[in-house]
Amino acid sequence: MSIRYAFNSDPKPQTRKIIVDESAATASPGRRNLTISNLENTGVCNPPDPSNFRVEDCTIPKIEDGEVLVETVYLSMDPAQRCQMNEETGVDYIEPLRLGETVHGLGGMGKIIQSKCETLNVGDIVVNSELGWPWQRICVRKASELTKGNLRKGETCVISSAAGAVGMLAGQICKLLEAGRVIGITSTPEKCEYLLTSNLGFDSAIAYKTEDVSTKLKEMAPEGVDLYFDNVGGDISDTVIKQMNEGGDVILCGAISTYNTDVGYPPPISEELQQIIRQKSINRNRFLVLDYTTEFPEALRTLEAWFRDGKLKCEVTMRYGLENAGSAFVEMMEGKNIGKMLVEVTSPRKG
């Protein structure tokens, strides 16, 4: 018997029975699996809630040739997963969650406990090379599934959601690529303090909940903004774009401010902003990491070298236990994390 997680939504959720495949074989006697399945969609304009998820036992499946059985160590919590909780995601590269089925997140890491693959062995640590990792303690993976901006030297860069997993790395990379000034926008003074005192390369930071972004940005970047790494959309992005220089670059990476609304992605912009973009010849391009899969190996080598040399720092907010994945996802959507939100499903030190 194994366990899985489910996904709810309405104020009065309808409980659905999860169908378990009783014919699947158990990988090893006494090993208990756990899956988080979705029970109900949240509704396009409602924030997610821990009650949207349910933990259930399920069987441990058999593996076929070319597959491995993986015990999940870490699950990645990503804002883009919020789009999966709608009937339509608005994009073609991730599918909506299905009621009563296991939640499929975007990333994870695990240890192989059974293998029918010549290239992967029991004990190997693996990550997904394609989007998708089930919220499940033990899962089957195919072997084939495992294993932008024009920044110029001296330019001024602004990073929104700068204390999050992506923003924190984007700011550091801008500095490593010799940006002149890197400005982070985040929610609270405490997060600003973290950005400025942790040697992350940020020259200044703005707490949008307590400070006027427009005023502070003019003080910090009196000559204007050259590159904007946009993780949030909405009013903050409108404010930054209005202070951009001619020929500047906007990298559309995310729009978390609109994820609990019925606004599409990329979010539409006003006629005023469209006119500013045209008049200043600002490049506003969507960044999708899947467009750069051929560059992954070289990028990973560069990032690993920076990390080993102490030039790139990673902060993690950790929650423990698969049963807490739903709550961790909600915390991440509410901005209660610094850096990457992870769920430790099983201890990496075990075995």
From TrEMBL:
The keyword Repeat does not apply. It comes from the Eukaryota. One of its GO terms (molecular function) is 15-oxoprostaglandin 13-reductase [NAD(P)+] activity. Its EC number is 1.3.1.48. It comes from Cyprideis torosa. This is 15-oxoprostaglandin 13-reductase. Belongs to the NADP-dependent oxidoreductase L4BD family. It catalyses: 13,14-dihydro-15-oxo-PGF2alpha + NADP(+) = 15-oxoprostaglandin F2alpha + NADPH + H(+); 13,14-dihydro-15-oxo-prostaglandin F1alpha + NADP(+) = 15-oxoprostaglandin F1alpha + NADPH + H(+); 13,14-dihydro-15-oxo-prostaglandin E1 + NADP(+) = 15-oxoprostaglandin E1 + NADPH + H(+). Keywords: Oxidoreductase. InterPro entries: ADH-like_C, ADH_N_2, ER, GroES-like_sf, MDR_fam, NAD(P)-bd_dom_sf. Gene3D superfamilies: NAD(P)-binding Rossmann-like Domain. SUPFAM superfamilies: GroES-like, NAD(P)-binding Rossmann-fold domains. The keyword tRNA-binding does not apply. One of its GO terms (biological process) is prostaglandin metabolic process.
